[in-house]
């Protein structure tokens, strides 16, 4: 997914960019269902602030974090040398 120069400028000015479709509708529904199931198991508060290293345990998180269209957008702002870290 290539970004327009105006989108890059908007991100640089506003600090965010919305309305980008990086997953299909079917993928979005699946991700939402899996996250809802995780939230049911862990509790709402925990899933809002305490999901550390869950990409090792939850395949859907790893799949989303390494999804090529999403990475292409992030690379537009940060460059190609990306890493997935948790503190």
Plain-language structure description:
The chain is an all-alpha fold. The protein has a domain at 22-78. The chain is built from five helices and no strands. It has helices at 5-14, 25-42, 44-49, 59-65, 68-78. The chain is globular, with a radius of gyration of 15 Å. The protein starts with a helix and ends in a 9-residue tail after the last helix. The relative contact order is 0.15.
Count of helices?
5
Spans of at least 5 consecutive residues whose pLDDT stays below 50 are: none
Provide the β-strand percentage band. under 5%
Order of secondary-structure elements: HHHHH
The total beta strand count reads 0
Tell me about the biggest sheet? none
Mean pLDDT rating = 85
- The end-to-end span amounts to 29 Å
Strand pairing plus helix content: what structural class? mainly alpha
Radius of gyration: 15 Å
Broad shape: globular
Comma- or semicolon-separated keywords:
single chain, 87 residues, mainly alpha, globular
Task: Briefly say what this structure is.
This protein is mainly α.
Helices and strands, with pairings:
Layout: H1 5-14, H2 25-42, H3 44-49, H4 59-65, H5 68-78
């Amino acid at each position: 997914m290539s970004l327009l120069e105006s989108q890059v400028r908007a991100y640089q000015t506003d600090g965010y960019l919305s309305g980008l479709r990086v997953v299909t509708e079917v993928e979005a529904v699946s991700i939402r269902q899996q996250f809802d199931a995780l939230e049911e198991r862990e509790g709402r508060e925990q899933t809002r602030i305490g999901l550390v290293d869950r990409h090792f345990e939850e395949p859907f998180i790893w799949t989303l974090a390494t999804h090529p269209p999403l990475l292409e957008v992030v690379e537009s702002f940060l460059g190609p040398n990306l890493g997935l870290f948790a503190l």
